[in-house]
Design a protein that fits this description.
Shape: globular
Number of helices: 4
Strand order of the largest sheet: 3-2-1-4
Distance between the termini: 37 Å
């Protein structure tokens, strides 16, 4: 069965408030670029036991173009699984945390990589090339592909 929606973008919310402003602008910019590339995109905010301040922030009218769902998995894994199982309509899913920043090209290029891999009969997980952590300490992590000679399953423990 083919989904009529190409991509579901899910932003998980816990205790984020004003730091989420740049995240939501980045998400809207990346979604606009994906739509300009011909993709249909579903926008979803997934509340995972949010604080009252976080819920108030994300319930503002400026975000009314986003669908809001109470999931309350208590952890990213169960919350994301519940969103996919119960709510998301996209053939592909992009998960973001409410304090993430990312390239405007991330979604459109990720979907292009996904479609190219699927055309070769693969079922890939497309991920960011680099994670740059900046809260409390600066760190940059390179994410090798599973078929990269430098990849090891132990990488996930790090």
């Amino acid at each position: 069965m083919t989904s009529p929606t190409d991509l579901s973008v899910v932003v998980t919310v816990h205790s984020e408030t004003c730091v989420a402003g740049p995240t939501m602008r980045a998400a809207d910019t990346a979604i606009a670029q994906a739509e300009a590339a011909g993709l249909s995109v579903e926008r979803m905010i997934a509340y995972d036991n949010p604080t009252a301040h976080a819920r108030t922030y994300f319930d503002q009218s400026a975000l009314d173009h986003w669908d809001r769902r109470d999931v309350n998995g208590g952890d990213l894994g169960p919350t994301r699984n519940a969103v996919v199982a119960e709510h998301a309509k996209g053939a592909a899913i992009a998960f973001l945390d409410a304090d993430d920043l990312f390239s405007p090209h991330w979604l459109s290029r990720g979907m292009a990589r996904l479609r190219a891999a699927e055309a070769e009969g693969l079922r890939p997980i497309v991920h960011p090339e680099v994670n740059w952590l900046f809260d409390g300490a600066d760190a940059v992590y390179w994410n090798p592909d599973q078929d990269d000679p430098l990849f090891a399953p132990q990488y996930f423990y790090v």
